[in-house]
Automatic annotation (TrEMBL):
Keywords: Signal, Transport
InterPro entries membership: Bact_solute-bind_prot3, Solute-binding_3/MltF_N
Signal peptide: 1-25
Boundaries of every Solute-binding protein family 3/N-terminal domain copy: 39-271
Protein name: Glutamate/aspartate transport system substrate-binding protein
Family membership: Belongs to the bacterial solute-binding protein 3 family.
Membrane-spanning residues: none
SMART domains reported in the protein's UniProt record: PBPb
Keyword check for Signal: yes
Superkingdom as given in the UniProt entry: Bacteria
Species for this entry: Hydrogenophaga palleronii
Amino acid sequence: MSHGFCARALLVAASLLAAFSLAQAQTGALLDRIKAEKKLVLAHRESSVPFSYLDPQGRPVGYALDVCVMLAKAVQRSLALDRLDVSYLQVTPANRIEAIEKGRAHMECGSTTNNAARRQQVAFTVPHFITGARLLVKADSPIDRIDHPALKAAVSTRNTTPLAALRKVDFERQLKLDIIEADDHERAVEMVEDGRAQAFAMDDVLLFGLAAGRPDPKALKVVGKFLTTEPLAIMLPKDEPAFKKVIDDEMRRMIYSGEIQQIYRRWFEQPIPPRNVALNLPASYLLRDLWKYPTDQMP
């Protein structure tokens, strides 16, 4: 066998392998599984109002859930499926990343910040919200900032960026706060209400939503300057470019068509469960600017 023939054979084999790899990438292992099983799992939260929470009947609802339902329909269209069974998995801040990493859910529909550390484990699509961490305190509290003398104990939710920011500020300013970790947002609010903590550090939009859902919404208030700037985005499995492209393309379509703005107004400007109270939070200038040039690339 000549060297020329061997070289040509190797070139042909390499070309076939490259073509196979390209075809596989265009479909993607995850999309193949979804197409075969006709099943998609959405991870949701228990009390991340108004993004992802349980209504009085125990059903998962919220802004991020509505966005994810649209994304699921896009996956169904892209795979030309006659049906796609969508199921729900409740997660917490502590296990949400693992749920996506281990394949127990295909999208996490909540209030998760897209940051560099998390991008080592998972992927994110275009943000659906931009917020920042502030403080929730009792309405009669004098506390109006993180370094107020009356603030001795502060709580935040385990495995969240506001908790990390709270620790960072406490260290840098030598505040010597007693920092408490709560399992979820609901428990953190209860700690403020019963006096175990004087403030709850969390994304301000979540704080407004949590306060609106309490028996007496006026008993709590949101105070202080932003401790962080948080781009919140739907979390996706890492290294699934074909699946991510379907999701990213649909996010951009919803933004450019104005559909996501309609979903936003439903959850942030109109009365919502459980108490039919409106948050009255129009889209911030940061979010409006992001939606002019939607991207998943976050600093």
